[in-house]
Structure formats: structure tokens, C-alpha cells
Amino acid sequence: MTVGDQTVGDETVGDEMVTVDGLRAWMVEFARIVAENKEHLTQLDSAIGDADHGINLNRGMQAVLGVLDGAPPKEVSDLLKTVGMTLVSTVGGASGALYGTYFLRLATSGGDTSELSPAEFGAALRAGLDGVVARGKPELGDKTMFDAMAPATDALNAALAAGERLATALGEASSAAAAGRDATIPLLARKGRASYLGERSIGHQDPGATSTAMLFAAAAATLA
Amino acid sequence: MKKLINDPDTVVSDALIGMDAAHPGLRIDHDRHIIYRADAPVAGKVGLISGGGSGHEPMHGGLVGPGMLDAACAGAVFTSPTPDQMLEATKKVDSGMGVLHIVKNYTGDVMNFEMAAEMAAVETGVEVRSVVTNDDVAVEDSLYTAGRRGVGVTVLLEKIVGAAAEQGRSLEELVALAGRVNDAGRSMGMALTSCIVPAAGSPTFDLGADEMEIGIGIHGEPGRYREPLGSAAEIAERIVVPVIQDFPLDKGDRVLAFVNGMGGTPLIELYLMYGEIAKILERHGIEIPRNLVGPYITSLEMAGCSVTLLRLDDELIDLWDAPVNTPALRWGV
To answer: Strand pairing partners for B191?
Structure first.
């Protein structure tokens, strides 16, 4: 956490800006969790998909680490755009397009600045969610990553609006993502390859919602 | 896993090296995994691009050449290619008349091609249009699924629209024709065995020695039902009748009947199946002025077949008969 020039004098948020270094730490932590759970994600995907979510997402996040190490971006939009473009070009499949779109929208919303206020960060996550909706057209309960991402984004913004500190808001977002992930188990899949299974998709945890819960857990661990 | 490979991680790259060596009529971008016809972009012609996961060969790389595709983007095995590949191919095949993306209806393929079209709109002046094939009647087409999968019709559409592009028709005309071909085709497949994705190393699904899966997808996605193995005549009924009923086709209709091998079934069995299917069509009074028999849209080493019926008219027959010169389809040249 750093004190942003423009927030000196603002006692409530002056010490909890989301910096480029913070975002970078978020990506490093997300990559670590994905690598650690690569087999788990792939196993979940083999039950209702095509058994490659862990392999593909890990390949993408390792590529992100490589790119961030090579030329560390100095602005929020640069960093997030780099993450988005790298995921788009290395992951493939629906998850590459969806996570790529998510970070590209975060980049556009974040803008050419070196740090974001909690409210700006909340707005960026909202823009990312809107991007996922535009790309995949998910609805709540379709058994997709949206089932974790939407409640997490709502929880973060609601907590911030209620005057909670960023750390608290991120904790609530992470809990909401985990709850959304668990709630996918009894659902019947209505999107993606899992939808071909119909009734047979019931009883399995969605791999996309699982990796999204990891993304929010990583945010809670690094951004506040 | 017993496969003729060096390393599961380099299967696609290594196969493209061999394809390059075998076919001087192609130009291959080995960094980006894009297969081009060597003379692309062709002046006065709309560029045709397709792409998809690898493991379905000869589709799509083997369908690149005069009279068919200008470029094909190869993804990892059974994984959609990425927008940066499609964008690069789009730029390279545009002669100024625009580019048509031919996309099979799978969530990943559709999203990645959509992103490529958006990027092309922002970064280039190339006019891009898309057609999505969705001919697999095994999947219920409803708001509650990803919709019907794109399978056999994709091959026929690439041939027919490719011939029309070669005549110099506009992008707008090709979009309309492509939509018409997709609407005129229906398919259904079946599997006798599973397949092994090299990176996974084990079979995608389990199928008992005496079982078959009716309505299988080309990535081993489940079909409509599983039942004890039947005779070729029984299997033909199981897969052709639902296709006929889905149209529905009437007495006197003319079709192109395409019996496709899934990769692990020999031609002798495919011809045997074609004979059974032709008998059923004859019984329904359906004529078969054109046919195609062989492995064109495969699922690695899966044993099984699919049948695609494409309702024909004089224009589609003429375009089907037009010259084509690709690794997989070649006539009139």
C-alpha cells in the first residue's frame, strides 16, 4: 500500500490505494494458486468439460508472469492490458476469451494512472464483469464463472459503498466468490460444453467458477 | 497411450512441419500456427478463413487451397485457436474485398472469432463477416444449451462457399450463401471407441467394448444415448432417420450424402455404411446426386462415423462440382 499524491488529506482511503505493484502482486498470487491447483481444475473440467481448464489457465498465467517480468508496466492500464492480451493469446478456448476480455475491460476502466482508489477499483471490476456478460451472455445460475464473479463484484462494491475499508470489502468479495462457486454444484449447466451433458452436469462444481474464486482469493491476499 | 508423436506438447507444431514439407501449395506460419494457400491474398476474391482446435484433420488445414479456404488457424488439440492468430490471418488474406470467418458453433470458437472480428474492426480497415455452422441434430437447440454443434456441414460449406468466392462474388453474397448452406444441412455422429488427447494421455471418455454412443460430438462430447453395439444397418437407421426427420426431408428431395470417418474407422467400413445409408434414403424417395465418403472431420483416433445430409439445388451442385485443389479435396484441376 502506498499513499497516493492526490489522496493526501483524504483520511478514509489515502492509505489503501490499489497500485501497479499491488496489481502485479495480485497476478503473481493468482498464478501461484492456479499452478498449485492445476490438477484440481483439470479434474473438475474432465467431469463436465474437456479436461483442460487447469492446463490452459496455468499456461496463460505462466505466460503473464513471463511478460510482466520482462517489461514491468508502470501504469494500471498497461499492466491490465498486458495481462488481458497475454491471456487472450495463450489460453485459447472460452476461458481465454472470457478472462482476456475481463482484464482488457479492467484496463480500459482503470486508465492511465499509477494507482486506483478503492471505488475506482470497484468500478473497474464492474466493467470487467460487464465485459464477461457481453462476451459470454451468462445469467446467474447457468453454472459458469459468472456465478462466482457477479456476487463477488456486488459484495465488493456494496461494502465500499457502505464505507468499509478495502481490506474488508475484498474479504467479503472473496467469500462471496467462494459461496458462488460452491453453489454451482447442484446447478444444471446451460452454457459451454457442459451444457451438452444436460442433467448429467448436476452435482459437479464448475471449473470456471472455481478459478474465479481463486482470482478473488488472490485479490484479498494481495490488494489490502 | 500409443501414438506416433515425439512429445505431447509439440504435436501440433510437428504436424505442421510435416504438412509444410508435403504440400508446396501451402505456406505455413510456424510461429502462429496458420496455414495459408501459397498465393494468398488472391486479387478480386473475398478471403475465407476458418480454424478450430487441432485433432480434426484434414479439417481445416487440409481444406486450404484454390476453391476452398485461404487460411486456417490451428489451435491446440481440441482447443479453439486465439484471436491474435485469426487477426493475423485476416490481414494476410484480405485482397480488399473483405474476409469471411467460418466458425463452428462451440463456445470457445465463437468467442475467439468474435474477439478477432472486433480487433480487425479497430486495428485494420478489413471488413469481416462471420458465419457459424450448427448442424448437429444430436444436440437439443434451446436457450438452455450452447446450441447445436458445428460438424460435417462445415466441410461442405467451405467447399461450396470457397467455389463461390473463387467466382469473385462479394462478401455480402457469400454471407448469404453460407447461411443458406448451413440451413440446408444436418448431421449426426456415433462412436465405437473414445479418443486420447495427447496432453491428457488417457481416453476422453469410457465406452464399453460392446457399447456405442449415438449422437457423439467431435471432441467426445456425449451424445443422445448409449446402447449395445448394433449392426451397420441398425447404426445407419439410428443416425440417418433423426437427420431426415429434423429437416424434414420429403420424397423427391435431392441431397449430398456425406459419410464421414471419425479417424479410427477404415474406408471399407465407411463404404459399407454409405451403402446402408443410401438404401435408407432410397426407401424415403430421397435422391443422392452427389456424395462424399471418407475421413474429413475427425476426432483423433476415435472409431465411428457421422452422416451429413445437405439439401441440394442446381446452384449448390454447380458450386460443389467447381474445381478445388486442396490436400484433402481435389478435382477439376
So the answer is: B213, B304
What's the CATH number for A16-222? 1.25.40.340
For B11-44, what is the HEC assignment? HHHHHHHHHHHHCCCEEEECCCCEEEECCCCCCC
Instruction: Report, as an integer, the average pLDDT of B216-221.
Output: 89
Asked whether the predicted pLDDT for residue B18 surpasses 60, the reply is yes
What is the Rg, in whole angstroms, of the alpha carbon atoms belonging to chain B?
19
End-to-end CA distance of chain A: 7
Q: Note if B219 is an active site residue.
A: yes
DSSP string across B121-159: HHH----EEEEEE--BTTS--STTSS-PPP-THHHHHHH
CATH code of the domain made up of B185-311: 3.30.1180.20
Residues of B in contact with A62 (CB under 8 A): none
Best probe of the A interface among B82, B134, B197, B302, by most A CBs < 10 A, is B82
* Mean pLDDT, rounded, for B116-138: 95
- Chain B residue with Cα closest to A141: B144
pLDDT at residue B31 in the model: 97
Cell output for B224: 443422445
Cell numbers at residue B109, please? Answer: 470458437
Which CATH architecture best describes the domain B14-184?
3-Layer(aba) Sandwich (3.40)
Nearest to A51 among B139, B146, B200 (CB): B200
Q: What pLDDT shows up at residue A3? A: 42
Query: Going by C-beta distance under 8 Å and a sequence separation of 6 or more, which residues neighbour residue A153?
Result: A122, A125, A126, A128, A129, A173
Minimum Cα–Cα distance from A188: chain B residue: B144
- pTM (2 d.p.): 0.92
